[in-house]
């Protein structure tokens, strides 16, 4: 007779071989990520050696609404924040750590000559391994931040963690508090022209769900933000339709295309100064006019004339800027 509480070995639940293998794989991946994280922490403590960083050490927490961008998306967004940046530029990354990782990779690669200041504002304290570049951020307290960050940044990307009006509005308060200016690059150029001032516009990117578009337009409209056709992709997919909003024009985050040929591309400016404001560019890459072969410029004036005729413009300007002193923002 067995005593109460005893059980036959046959009655003890047993995991199948497949379940055991899956469990071993799970713990193996967990331990691997932990080692990666510890290595990254050690690098930060010993001064970063410049080797490429990845998001693999930081597992997503879906309960905290963490969905990392794919490397391609994070890199494209990081490049737009770095375009035209100088050593005096300050970049704030609000709740988008995968973009911050790619910013560090690109800057350390030497692809861009400038080394702007960069800060990651993030709730997840694992990113504190980046020491002085990390700022603990909770959207519930949008302005509970170090005082020295107020009005500091001329380049900002924000990806609010939740698709709610409350979260989006509070994140917008944070962006406004951080911004050096609330004028788009186009508005800054207009102000510079009218008052003979240096343009200091905000370069802003906001990534969030498609259904937030009306609210985003309301919250960031005065900064010149518009919906782009760039679709951010996440490394593990996302059921919600995501959109990218920006207040400047670039090749990776395009606006409405007007004309395209083998040599030439024309599209509407994302922050138009007037009706029909368009950009007409050669596809051949050159930072300045003198860097582009004559045959690659052969269609530019012809296309410009066609657009001016199509919009019925009787009075118009044709501008072509070369170099920072001439207010060139994109090196193309």
Automatic annotation (TrEMBL):
Q: What is its main location?
A: cytoplasm
Q: Does the keyword Transferase apply?
A: yes
What is a single cellular component term in the Gene Ontology annotation? Answer: cytoplasm
Could you tell me which residue ranges the HIT domain spans? 244-332
Which GO terms fall under biological process for this protein? methylation
- Reply yes or no: does the keyword Zinc-finger apply: no
Per UniProt, which keywords does this protein have?
Cytoplasm, Methyltransferase, Transferase
Q: Which domain of life is it from?
A: Eukaryota
Protein name per its UniProtKB record: HIT domain-containing protein
What species is this protein from? Answer: Cryomyces minteri
Identify the taxonomic lineage of the organism of origin.
Eukaryota, Fungi, Dikarya, Ascomycota, Pezizomycotina
């Amino acid at each position: 007779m067995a005593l109460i509480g005893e059980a036959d070995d046959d009655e003890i639940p047993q995991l199948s071989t497949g379940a055991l293998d899956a469990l071993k794989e799970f713990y193996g991946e967990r331990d691997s990520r932990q080692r990666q994280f510890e290595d990254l922490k050690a690098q930060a403590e010993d001064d970063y050696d410049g080797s490429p960083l990845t998001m693999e050490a930081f597992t997503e927490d879906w309960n905290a609404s963490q969905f990392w961008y794919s490397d391609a998306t994070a890199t494209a967004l990081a490049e737009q924040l770095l375009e035209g940046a100088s050593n005096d530029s300050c970049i704030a990354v609000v709740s988008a750590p995968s973009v911050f990782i790619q910013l560090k990779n690109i800057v350390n690669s030497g692809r861009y000559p400038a080394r702007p200041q960069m800060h990651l504002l993030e709730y997840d304290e694992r990113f504190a391994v980046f020491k002085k570049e990390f700022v603990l951020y909770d959207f519930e307290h949008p302005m509970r931040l170090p005082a020295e960050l107020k009005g500091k940044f001329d380049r900002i990307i924000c990806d609010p963690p939740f698709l709610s009006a409350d979260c989006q509005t509070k994140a917008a308060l944070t962006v406004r508090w951080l911004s050096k200016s609330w004028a788009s690059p186009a508005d800054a150029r207009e102000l510079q022209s009218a008052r003979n001032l240096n343009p200091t516009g905000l370069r802003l990117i906001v990534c969030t769900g498609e259904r937030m578009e009306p609210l985003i337009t309301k919250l960031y409209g005065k900064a010149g933000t518009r919906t782009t056709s760039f679709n951010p992709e996440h490394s593990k997919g996302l059921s919600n339709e995501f959109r990218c909003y920006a207040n400047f024009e670039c090749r990776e985050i395009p606006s409405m295309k007007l004309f395209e040929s083998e040599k030439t591309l024309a599209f509407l400016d994302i922050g138009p100064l007037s009706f029909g404001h368009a950009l007409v560019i050669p596809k051949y890459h050159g930072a300045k006019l003198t860097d582009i072969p004559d045959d690659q410029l052969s269609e530019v004036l012809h296309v410009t004339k066609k657009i001016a005729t199509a919009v019925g413009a009787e009075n118009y300007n044709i501008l072509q800027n070369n170099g920072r002193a001439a207010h060139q923002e994109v090196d193309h």
